[in-house]
Amino acid sequence: MSARARLGKRITFAVGSILAFAYVFPFFLVFVNSLKGKYDILANPLALPKVITWDNFSQALTKMNFFRSLTNSIIITVLSVSLLIFFSSMLAYYLARTKSKPSKYIFLILVTSMIVPFQALMIPFMARFAPFVSFNNRGALIFFYIGFGTALSTFLYHGFISNIPTEIDEAASIDGASDLRAFWAIIFPMMRPITATVAIINALWIWNDFLLPRLVLTDESQTLPLSTYLFYGQYSIEYGQAMAGLVLAVLPIVIFYLVLQKQFIAGISQGAVK
User: Fold this and answer.
1) Radius of gyration of the chain (CA)
2) Residues 6 or more apart from 230 whose CB is under 8 A from it?
């Protein structure tokens, strides 16, 4: 290896280490402060705890009604992600295998809709659907997540399916399989890497989302991000409990990502984004 190549690797490693530290440090700071008392946090939030206390976690579990909020988050995330995978995978397969102008226009509309942020549509969207949809329930929220998440999920699936040879579909058709049977029996099992990618991206978005559940749900059906809002009062903030609540809210989705990270990387590298 030449001196220039070694220098390039060292620079890449140094830059990567700095970026990794900059990304991880806020999470480390939140965890450290969750082990400190309120006045210790106010005195020096960057210092390590002199005395480690777990009282913040026990108080946060009670105040945010953790297990009820966790159940709501799991139900909403699992159902939303499952339905997104079900509908977007079939739509992407149809658009990728159907070479027609309507298919191209539909795909173009889906990709274009990804540019528009939800915040720009929030007020007219809620005003339009309020008379037709019963708010204050998890079903309405799942319905909205499917609508907002279909475009990105279809885009990711479409890029992956385009790399699967059409000869596989033709062989299945010769054997007497319908398009639907060929998709679920042959094509869909081949899409495990991109399915993991779609699941992780949507799960991260839905699990950590605050604005849409805030508009739709009430206290009885609130998710974990909504429950952390309870620590921020009008005149005072329970910093230690808030930090503990944030750690508890993030921990399940971090574990989910760590379990599927290999499939996530494989999905990206095999054509998830083109």
Assistant:
1) 23
2) 63, 64, 245
Phi, psi angle pair for 205, to nearest 5°: -65, -50
User: Distance between CA atoms of 153 and 150, rounded to whole angstroms?
Assistant: 5
Q: Map out the domains of the chain as residue ranges.
A: 60-272
Task: Mention every residue, 6+ apart, whose C-beta is less than 8 A from residue 124.
Answer: none
181-220: pLDDT as tens digits:
888 988 999 888 889 889 989 999 999 888 888 888 776 6
Topology adopted by domain 60-272: MetI-like fold (1.10.3720)
End-to-end CA distance of the chain: 32
pLDDT digits (tens, 9 = 90+) for 23-56: 888 888 888 888 888 788 888 888 888 888 888 8
CA distances from 79 to 28, 95, 146, 212 (A): 31, 24, 10, 16
**Residue 24 identity (one-letter amino acid):** V
Tokens of 35: 């082990």
Contacts of 34 (CB under 8 A, 6+ apart): 56, 57, 240, 243, 244, 246, 247
pTM (2 d.p.): 0.83
